[in-house]
Design brief:
This protein is of the alpha+beta class. The protein has ten helices and eight strands. Strand 5 and strand 6 form a beta hairpin. Helix 7 runs parallel beside helix 8. The radius of gyration is 30 Å and the shape is elongated. The N and C termini lie far apart (85 Å).
């Protein structure tokens, strides 16, 4: 079959775009959720296998090149199509912010059309559609997971990341790891440090703030849930009291724990393991020993030698010596930094 020449092809595409009204990609979609396979197909049809990023709109047959209002309207349609195409590849928060900016540019072009123009009513209708799409992109950007580098790991379910405004202490959501002075507690800490070495970029899905002013969040590295991996490997258990924070993946956590328990992995290798929350209430005595008078300890350093985190959130991983941790414990009644897990008056016993 003979192929149409270039002018015939372009004329056909102009008619299609005008007749279909952008195939409702822009004029009929109230939100960007309707932009997907349909938008991809339109781009494919129009450029016939060409580069979607180079797609531009052609002026309608009856438009006049020297009509400034028509030019602005055509420009707005081009910008809108560019925003729709960018939507196909948007994944991160920064991608969605870029899409939001493209919609805003298209809206600005429509806004510049004066009320005296014959295109004013059409432009206002289009503007409403673009405003809805811009709002959707802004919402998607807000829901996208922010990334942050790991600063340190305190124990098997606590870490610190570098936030936008400074260090942030994070309690990994929906799991509970053995305490550092509990059986398999040190192993859980070492495993989390292996999974999240210093500088590792992680994605943070914040859920809430706890009573220690920590951010409770699911942590993802390489697209995989770190908390779920710790449960799967037997270094943490499902924290049923707070599993509602991971409602969409709760079954995954429970299945991972069941598999670890059946395989007797790590924490579950014990004949009668004490769950971390019971241990914190004094439910386990690791080794029954007679009561003795504690040996004198080296006096803690002056408050001026405390780490910078003392004014915010500290964990045991922030101290180079036990004396520093003990000094902070004694300087902050009530143990707001949760340095004394077994309430015996001694901070971060793993550092001694």
């Amino acid at each position: 079959m003979p192929q149409p020449n270039t002018s015939q092809f372009l004329s056909t595409q102009r008619q299609r775009l005008s007749l279909l009204g952008l195939l409702t990609l822009l004029s009929g979609c109230s939100t960007l959720t309707e932009v997907g396979a349909m938008g991809t197909q339109l781009v494919s049809d129009v450029v016939a296998g060409g580069d979607a990023n180079s797609l531009t709109f052609l002026p309608a047959e009856d438009s006049e090149p020297d009509d400034p209002e028509q030019q602005r309207y055509s420009q707005a349609l081009e910008q809108g199509m560019a925003a729709a195409v960018a939507t196909q590849a948007a994944q991160s928060a920064s991608d969605w912010r870029q899409v939001e900016g493209q919609w805003q540019e298209a809206i600005a072009s429509l806004t510049s059309i004066p009320s005296s123009s014959e295109l004013f009513s059409t432009a206002q209708q289009k503007r409403q559609e673009y405003e809805a799409n811009r709002a959707y992109a802004a919402q998607a950007a807000a829901k996208s997971l922010p990334t942050a580098p790991v600063i340190s790991v305190g124990d098997g379910d606590t870490l610190r990341v570098q936030g936008r405004d400074g260090p942030v202490t994070i309690r990994v959501a929906c799991i509970d790891a053995p305490e550092t002075n509990q059986t398999f507690g040190p192993e859980a800490t070492r495993r989390l440090r292996q999974l999240l070495p210093t500088g590792q970029l992680v994605e943070v899905r914040a859920i809430e703030r706890d009573r220690y002013d920590r951010t409770v969040a699911e942590i993802y590295a390489g697209g995989q849930s770190v908390g779920l991996q710790l449960v799967r490997e037997g270094y943490a258990v499902v924290y049923e009291q707070y599993i509602s924070g991971c409602a969409t993946t709760a079954d995954d956590y429970r299945q991972a724990e069941s598999a670890a328990r059946n395989a007797r992995r790590n924490f579950w290798s014990q004949s009668n393991p004490t769950l971390p929350w019971d241990f914190r209430r004094g439910g386990e005595s690791p080794s029954p020993t007679p009561m003795v008078t504690p040996a004198p300890v080296t006096p803690p350093p002056a408050a001026s030698n405390l780490p910078a985190c003392a004014s915010g959130n500290c964990d045991c991983g922030d101290f180079s010596t036990w004396q520093q941790a003990q000094a902070l414990l004694e300087a902050t009644p009530g143990d707001p930094h949760r340095l004394d897990g077994d309430n015996d008056g001694i901070a971060c016993e793993s550092l001694r």
